[in-house]
């Protein structure tokens, strides 16, 4: 059983967005187990067809609900026009809705009504280390190899976990993308997915990927947009002082889960061996995911980026924190940090100006050289995002969110 960090208000309608398999439906069932509600699941094809043909029938279904009864609509992106009816019912009847979605793309394309702030927005990620940290049986290598989709932790063997991840990528990331009518031609998109996974964490070279996949650059841009809109990955832009300029620079792309990335790149049977470049890349991916997930939940105004200079010096992560100096983070997979690992971050932190500089690794001992503090990656998260843990200590068990 895991406590989830998402904790919506009981007094306001809300969206929960996130990829399939991240636990949205399971979480909602626990959230509403003691609350009066009506559940409408748009994965039910009959119900989806009914609402597609006549979205207004939603009003008839909820016309006689009792006061304080919530209406839960699961996978609302399947019928974007329903949101016009939802908006009306919030305004006129003061009904509260809980709405989930695994794709924002269909909502955007349909010019869907996102309720103009009348519904709060939350994101459900795969399980974070913060949610798993009290389970001593889950290791860093487990998270690197199989990721943290909730289903993974209910499977007993590495073989079962690998089979689940392969099935996930084959069914959801291909067939269901087409079912949502996000791409017309599946073949090049299928070729794109493993290429994108193999380039995970690298600066996107649209022209090279287009050549490898056999489509034009514009299609590759569109494919990456699809992965972002379905919450399957995100672009990480290089840091510059102006956000507008940042968008103009070539980003990196990270898939939303290490296990899914390994499945897509057909690397699940390849062992992760410490002190290899593959191991270092996956460890970096894991740590960046943890910061992104926690920041999106607790610090939505924080912006994550990376630094790459003209001389190809690079810092893995910069967290721009309003009201604070930036946090500059170098990520190393080693179990023994020494000063030789810090040359780049020491130099670039001086050029950047006031900042907090960290090197996060698997070395359990705290060290520092100059202005750079070296911590284990878990202690680094606790230090850089310390308000989360201070707040957590003051919560009762029931306030920490539903479990599953």
Write up what this structure looks like:
The protein has 17 helices and 13 strands. It has helices at about 25-30, 45-55, 55-60, 80-95, 105-110, 130, 140-145, 160-180, 185-200, 205-215, 215-230, 245-250, 260-265, 275-300, 345-350, 375-385, 385-395, and strands at about 15, 35-40, 70-75, 95-100, 120-125, 235, 250-255, 305-310, 315-320, 325-330, 355-360, 365-370, 370-375. With about 400 residues, the protein is of the alpha/beta class. Residues about 395-404 have low confidence and may be disordered. The protein starts with 13 loop residues before the first strand and ends in an 11-residue tail after the last helix. It folds into three domains: about 15-125, Rossmann fold (3-Layer(aba) Sandwich); about 130-225 and about 255-275, no CATH class; about 300-390, 3-Layer(aba) Sandwich (Trna Endonuclease, Chain: A, domain 1).
